[in-house]
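Quiz preparation item.
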């Protein structure tokens, strides 16, 4: 949490994200840091970004095309952070995401990511684990997703067959529930907590994802 209070770190993170998403700034943005006004650990000079919080926007926007475009932007922005840049916003939740419609191109949503004090990067093995798991979920293959977690668990050789069966069954229910849940209603923190709870229940140590 101390990293979030050091605004020099957040300044550097904003500059990195801006550079990484330079080609996509028409639809995916971060607050711009003014280099002529040096930031300190207590003060950050950045542009004011106009927009609605993600949940508020989703509550008022009934246009299915816009909603789909927004979901596409959000997913692709995250995948770019993860698989292309390996520099990930580590505090993504609806309160840190603004949305507004482009005045010059009606119907085109613009997504703005805020509060980038916390970031993360994955090791090569973690990146592969996440990629394989994401691919399984994207293919609606909840059984494969559960199997990947079991096979790559640090204590894989110690897991008995009954635990494997139970974990696969409950993970399938959990993942299928997430797949069927509208984007605005998905609570990532709760999903991760449920996965951790299942791991504890069946004595499966979870590898990093």
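Solution:
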């Amino acid at each position: 949490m101390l990293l979030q209070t050091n605004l020099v770190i957040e300044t550097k993170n904003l500059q990195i994200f801006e550079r990484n998403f330079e080609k996509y700034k028409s639809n995916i943005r971060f607050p711009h840091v003014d280099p002529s006004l040096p930031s300190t650990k207590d003060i950050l000079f950045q542009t004011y970004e106009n927009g609605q919080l993600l949940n508020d926007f989703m509550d008022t926007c009934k246009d299915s095309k816009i909603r789909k475009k927004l979901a596409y932007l959000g997913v692709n922005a995250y995948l770019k952070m993860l698989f292309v840049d390996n520099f990930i916003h580590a505090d993504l939740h609806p309160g840190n995401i603004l949305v507004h419609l482009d005045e010059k191109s009606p119907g085109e949503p613009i997504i703005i990511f805020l509060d980038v004090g916390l970031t993360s990067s994955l090791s090569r093995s973690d990146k592969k684990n996440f990629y394989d798991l994401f691919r399984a979920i994207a293919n609606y293959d909840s059984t494969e997703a559960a199997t990947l977690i079991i096979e790559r668990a640090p204590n894989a050789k110690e897991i008995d067959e009954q635990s494997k069966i139970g974990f696969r069954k409950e993970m399938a229910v959990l993942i299928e529930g997430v797949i069927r849940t509208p984007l605005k209603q998905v609570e990532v923190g709760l999903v991760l907590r449920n996965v951790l709870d299942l791991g504890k229940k069946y004595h499966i140590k979870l590898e990093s994802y």
